[in-house]
Amino acid sequence: MAPLVANYYLTNRIYLDPESSLAEDMTAVEDANLTDVARNLSDLRRLGVKYINLAGTEPLLYADIQQVLTLAKEQGLVVSLSTSPNLYLKQARKIKGLVDYLNFSLDDDNIIFSDKSASIEAGGSLLAGIELARSLGEYPVLNFTINLQNYHYLEAIAKLSQSFGVRVWLILNSLGAIGEDSPVSHHISGMSAVIEAVTHKYSHIGYNKAALAFLQAGGNDRQNPRCQAVDAAISISTDDRLLMPCSHIAQTAIPIEGKLFDLYQSSPIIEKSRKFQGKMPPCQGCTLWTYMIPSFFIGVDKYWWLNQLTYAGEVLARRRFLQRA
Ligand code: SF4
User: Fold this and answer.
1) Class of residue 227 by CB neighbours under 10 A (exposed 0-12, middle 13-18, buried 19+)
2) Where are the domains of the chain?
3) Is 293's C-beta closer than 6 angstroms to any atom of ligand 1?
4) How many angstroms separate the CA atoms of 241 and 124, rounded?
5) Would the CB of 246 count as within 6 Å of ligand 1?
6) What dihedral do alpha carbons 64, 239, 48, 70 form, nearest 10°?
7) SUPFAM superfamilies from the entry (predicted)?
8) Gap from CA of 64 to ligand 1 centroid (Å)
9) Is 120 in the pocket of ligand 1 (CB under 6 A)?
10) Hey, what CATH topology would domain 5-324 get?
11) Which of 5, 227, 284 has the most ligand 1 atoms within 8 A of CB, as the residue to mutate?
């Protein structure tokens, strides 16, 4: 079966305040070469990949982003891009109509968290980014990476996003080791209760039910791995390497050199990585979103069902939401 998703790292640069002392260092990092990207996008399509996630720290800092998006659309790939509203405001017209899923990340850059009252306040760029996107015919969704430190803010985020008339999608990402004996596991139930209560009250907040159930169960089990990183997703680094089994461990980084299709079809290294997916020491308790969600599309079990239900429900919810908007 062909991998469903490709995580493509175009740049490792991060968006920083121009005043920051780090800004110069980060601009020295080499970005992906456009010729390599074009060749790989074509091979991804030949391999049967359907969905491309423009990953990396900030894809909109990639100089040729417009060309990459155009090429991806020409290959018929569904494109997801996550960015900060701040940067979107500068690049919006360049990418107009080229992104299927435009996500704004909610973080310290655009949200002011008040610890005492668990309230939040939007930074100026958030509403401006949403309004600009809408004026250009885009439908941005706010991605909130929820964790044990910030889940108390979920209701405040629900109210704010409701006032902006925008949907929120919860990212239930890695929370570190969450095996049965981990102290973290004792707090997961508190966070789950908040997620379930708030999403029940506010229909414009969505989350993946399979991901929450997986988190509650302690994440990936090395002895009986649910992670199918190699079968479900392809990850390509800025220096044109195939990261195996996933970008998190990247135990092997195979130079692609224009042979992505052949590599993925027949390389013994890929075959070997496949045998180790989800079974290495760092895999215990892993809940990495970018690999687990595609993995839930493989093999029929309760996570497969919950994942299917989630996406069917989310498609309907987004359709209804857009009709109302
Ligand atoms: S379980 Fe996590 S760390 Fe291990 S291969 Fe899968 S995604 Fe990578």
Assistant:
1) buried
2) 5-324
3) no
4) 38
5) yes
6) 0
7) Radical SAM enzymes
8) 30
9) no
10) TIM Barrel (3.20.20)
11) 227
What does the alpha-carbon distance between residue 91 and residue 85 come to, in Å, rounded to a whole number? 10
CA of 302 to the centre of ligand 1 (A): 20
Going from the Cα of 289 to the center of ligand 1, the distance in angstroms, rounded, reads 10
Both structure tokens of 28: 């020295």
- Give the pLDDT confidence of 222-273 residue by residue, as tens digits: 999 999 999 999 999 999 999 999 988 877 899 999 999 999 888 898 889 9
78-110 tens-digit pLDDT: 999 999 898 999 999 999 999 999 999 887 778
Dist. CA 5–CA 18, nearest whole Å: 34
Q: Which residue has the tokens 């599309």?
A: 297
- Burial status of residue 238 (CB atoms within 10 A of its CB: 0-12, 13-18, 19 or more): buried
Q: Is the CB of 278 under 6 A from ligand 1?
A: yes
Sheet holding 205-206, edge to edge: 205-206, 168-171, 141-145, 101-105, 78-83, 51-55, 5-9, 233-236, 241-244, 252-255
